[in-house]
Amino acid sequence: MKAKHKLRYAIDLLFSRGSATSESYTRLVLECVRANDVDQAKRLETHMELHFLQPDITFIQNRLLQMYAKSGKVLDARNLFDKMRKRDVFSWNALLSAYAKSGSVKDLRATFDRMPFRDSVSYNTVIAGFARNECSSEALEVFVRMQEEGFEPTEYANVSALHACSQLLDLRLGKQIHGWIIVVNLCGNVFIWNALIDMYAKCGDFDRARWLFDRMVNKNVVTWNLMISGYVKNGLSEKCIELVHEMRLLGLKPDQVTVSNVLGAYFQCGYVDEAIKTFSEIKEKDKICWTTMMVGYAQNGREQDALMLFGEMLLANVRPDSFTISSVVSSSAKLASLYNGQVVHGKAIHMGVDDDLLVSSALVDLYCKCGVTSDAWMVFETMPTRNVVSWNAMIGVMVNVEQKRLSPLETWKEGEAALVKFQKILKEKMGKLNFGDYCRERDRSAFASMAGNVILYKIVIYFELENK
C-alpha cells in the first residue's frame, strides 16, 4: 500500500512540474508495473500525451500495453496501440493478449491476420486464445499454419492444441500431435502429460489414457483429477472410486474437484450413504459439491432431500449458479411442488439467470407438470432460445386435454387457441420445422398414446402445410 501511495505522490509531483525526461517516464512506468497500478499508469500516459512525448523506442509504451492487457483493459490497450508511432512484434503480441483474455475472438483473428510480422509468442497467444474460448477448429488451423510458416510449436502451443482436440473429440489429430511431441522430445513436461491424458480420456481411449497415467513420474493433483473425471463422465464410476482410494493410500490429499467427482461416482453406483458421509466430511464446500449432491439426490429418487439441501446451501451463503437452479427446479417438477418451484423461480429472477436456457427449460417443465399452463406459456414465449425439453413440455400441455374431460367442442376450441400461440412462436422464432424430425426427438410411445388427440392432429396438419 505504501508503494502505491509513493507512486501516486510521484505522479502528482510530475503533473505539478510539467514535462519530464524519457528516463523519468521509464522509471515511473516500471513502478506502475511493479505495483500493478493501472490508474496511475493511465495518468502517466495522459501526462505523456499532454507534453507531446512520442518515444523513439517502444519500450515505455509496450510496458503500458502489456499492463493493460494483463489487467483486462482492452479499450485502453487498443487506444494506446492506435496512438503508437512505432510498433514492434511485442506491441502486436500485447494487443493479441488483451483480445485473447477478454474473449474477443473476432478482434483476435483480425489483428493476427494483419500483423506485418509474427513470432512464436504470436502463435502461442492466438492458439491458446481460440482454445480457451471454445474456437477449437480455429485453434488447430493456426497450429498447422504455425508449422507451415516455419515455427516449431512450443510446449505451450502443443498443450493448447491438445486441449482443442479434446473439445472436438478429434482422437486422430490428437495422436498425430502426440507423435510430434515424442519426436521433438517434449515428454518431460507435466503440462503436456496432463493434456495428453485429458485428450485420450475425453476421446474415449481410456486404455491409452491410463497407460500414460501409470507411467507418469511426477503426477500432481490435476493429473489425478483428469483421470478421475474422465472415468465419471463416461460412466466408469467403480474405476473412479478405486482410483480415489489409490490416491488416498499414496498420501495425496483430494481437492474440491476430486471430491465432486467421487460424489458423482457414488451416486452413479447408488452408494448414496457413502456420498452423504463424504459430503459431511468436507470442511469448505464449494457450489460444485453442493450441486453434485443435489443432482445425485434427484438421480436416486430423493428430490425432497435435494430441495432441503438447496436451503442449507443458501444458509451457508454459497451462491448457486444457473445449473444449480435448474437442477432444483427439476426436482420441484418431479415432486409437482409448485410452491418450491415458484420460490426457486423468484431466486432465479433475483440472480438474473431466469432467461438461462437450462433454467427456463426446467421452469417450463415445472409449470406444465403442475398444471399452470399460463405461467408455462409466459416463460416459454420469453425464452431467447428453446431446446427439445421446452418444446416437449409445451406440446405435452397441448396434447393432454383428455385429462380435463372436455367436450368435443371445448377440446376443439382449446386446440385452436393453443395452435394460434404455437404458430406465432414458430413463425417468429423457429421458422420452418420438420415435424418428422421433431417426432424422432420424442418418445415414440408418448406420441402413440396421443394419436387420437385433436390438438396433436391439428399440429401435425400445421407442420405438413408449412413444409409443403
Order of helices and strands: HHHHHHHHHHHHHHHHHHHHHHHHHHHH
Instruction: Flag low-confidence runs.
Output: 429-467
Mean pLDDT: 83
Rg is 29 Å
Helix content: over 70%
Largest sheet: none
Percent in strands? under 5%
Task: Explain how this protein is built.
The chain has 468 residues and is mostly helical. Helix content is 75%, strand content 0%. The termini are far apart.
Describe the structure concisely for a colleague.
By secondary structure, the chain is mainly alpha-helical. Helices cover 75% and strands 0% of the residues.
Outline the secondary-structure elements.
Elements: H1 2-17, H2 22-35, H3 38-50, H4 59-70, H5 74-83, H6 89-102, H7 105-113, H8 120-132, H9 136-148, H10 155-168, H11 171-183, H12 190-202, H13 206-215, H14 221-233, H15 237-249, H16 256-269, H17 272-280, H18 287-299, H19 303-315, H20 322-334, H21 338-351, H22 357-369, H23 373-381, H24 388-399, H25 408-430, H26 435-441, H27 444-449, H28 454-466
Helix pairs in contact: 1-2, 1-3, 2-3, 2-4, 3-4, 4-5, 4-6, 5-6, 6-7, 6-8, 7-8, 8-9, 8-10, 9-10, 10-11, 10-12, 12-13, 12-14, 13-14, 14-15, 14-16, 15-16, 16-17, 16-18, 17-18, 18-19, 18-20, 19-20, 20-21, 20-22, 21-22, 22-23, 22-24, 25-28
